[in-house]
Amino acid sequence: MDSVEKGAATSVSNPRGRPSRGRPPKLQRNSRGGQGRGVEKPPHLAALILARGGSKGIPLKNIKHLAGVPLIGWVLRAALDSGVFQSVWVSTDHDEIENVAKQFGAQVHRRSSETSKDSSTSLDAIIEFLNYHNEVDIVGNIQATSPCLHPTDLQKVAEMIREEGYDSVFSVVRRHQFRWSEIQKGVNEVTEPLNLNPAKRPRRQDWDGELYENGSFYFAKRHLIEMGYLQGGKMAYYEMRAEHSVDIDVDIDWPIAEQRVLRFGYFGKEKLKEIKLLVCNIDGCLTNGHIYVSGDQKEIISYDVKDAIGISLLKKSGIEVRLISERACSKQTLSSLKLDCKMEVGVTDKLAVVDEWRKEMGLCWKEVAYLGNEVSDEECLKRAGLSAVPADACSAAQKAVGYICKCNGGRGAIREFAEHIFLLMEKVNNSCQK
Question: What ranges does the record give for the region Disordered, renumbered to this chain (predicted)?
């Protein structure tokens, strides 16, 4: 269960361990930020995600797909769904990041070259943003590299700022780690314990542990930021659950992060339901979209055995799999694949066909998964409870989905989506058992 502790701090540090500018100031309450009497308009709280294009570790890391979603998309979804921000912004210097941000519903501030350098600090970029947005009273600086952030965390922090009068609130996580003094190489000294008595080592359950900044977010009022601080004044920390504290910049690599996100991430306002039907487009999903014609005018297609195994696993788990195509494919050719799936070809209205299948099985749309790759799949992708596209799907289809596969069509996309479905269904089953 989340816990929050509050209180003034004795020192200030900038995010990511940057040097502080001294002790945090003791601020006087004023009318800006909604603390004066007779203020009718609530203070403007803006979410701000800093996402420059330069990344020495992973190129364009902020929009690299994590569990089928651009990394920045996870925190944007949480911020937008929290309902506590008057505006949600992404500060970037890169066109591709701008496009992704707008796709998720955020506004974009184009940051200058001066605040986009490797040496630029988060505070530099936030102050620049405020210089262009006089309407903003409070900034919630959310780190793009914290994909397990949930709206409930942001809602509670907004309440601390707005209702309880805190000037700044930052996220922390509790860790149970024993620390020892560092000894420089070549120095003849012995290490000393910093937070334990070696003669009486406590058990984990007998020790509360210690609080560490996890970099997930830093909320601060304008007048504090303009003085050069993200932490100061009446200051408090917000303790996040350990499983939600994931920072890709620091302590976790990409594959492990994907598993954590699939298990503990936030997937939207509506609760996931158990999938009962998967509908898959034939050309470009089951196959790579290439059609070969033999000398006797017979159609030849290719598919990946991994995808056939994926279909088999889905069926064994009780999920019906059906195939659809707007092209009049050869049913004889498809039957030779021995997938044992009901199919409909030459379809002019895919949404109508899938809707008929759904009603026939007595399902709601949340129980339907759809894998498509073309403009003709767009409406089905938007309606389905789970939707995905292969990596090489058209841009219109990619914008309509919640998961973009790493694999191309006809090259393992079905198997990959099947694994994604199984992981999410495990999440559904676990939540039902709680």
Answer: 1-42
Q: Helices 413-433 and 305-316, interaxial angle, to 10°?
A: 20
Torsion, CA 85, CA 160, CA 125, CA 100, rounded to 10: -40
Residue 298, Cα to own-chain centre: how many angstroms?
46
Rounded Cα gap, residues 287 and 89, in angstroms: 39
Q: How far apart are CA 19 and CA 38, in angstroms?
A: 39
Q: Per-residue pLDDT tens for 226-280?
A: 999 999 999 999 999 988 988 886 545 788 888 888 888 898 877 778 899 999 9
CA-based R_g, the chain, Å: 26
Place of tokens 């064994």: 316
List pLDDT tens digits, range 338-393.
788 898 999 999 999 999 999 999 999 999 999 999 999 999 999 999 999 999 99
Task: Find the farthest-apart pair of alpha carbons in the chain and give their distance in angstroms, rounded.
Answer: 87
Residue 89: CB atoms within 10 Å: 22
Within 13 A of 94's CA, how many CA atoms are on the CB side?
17
65: its two tokens: 């797909």
Tokens of 331: 């049913």
Average pLDDT over residues 32-45: 64
Pair of tokens at residue 426: 């495990």
Cβ atoms of 33 and 242 within 8 Å: the answer is no
Strand partners for 389: 404
3-state secondary structure of 47: strand
Buried b (16+ CB within 10 A) or exposed e, 196-224: eeeeeeeeeeeeeeeeebbbbbbbbbbbb
254: tokens are 């990409």
**Can you name the residues that pair with 69 across neighbouring β-strands?**
66
Instruction: Look up residue 117 and give its two tokens.
Output: 């350098």
Q: What DSSP letter does each residue of 240-284 carry, written as one string? A: PPGGG---TTTS--HHHHHHHHHHH----SSPP----EEEEEIII
DSSP state, residue 203: P
Q: Which of 37, 201, 203, 383 is catalytic?
A: 201
CA 386 to chain centre: 16
Domains belonging to the chain, first-starting first, are 45-264 (3.90.550.10), 277-431 (3.40.50.1000)
Active-site annotation holds for 201: yes
This prediction has a pTM of: 0.74
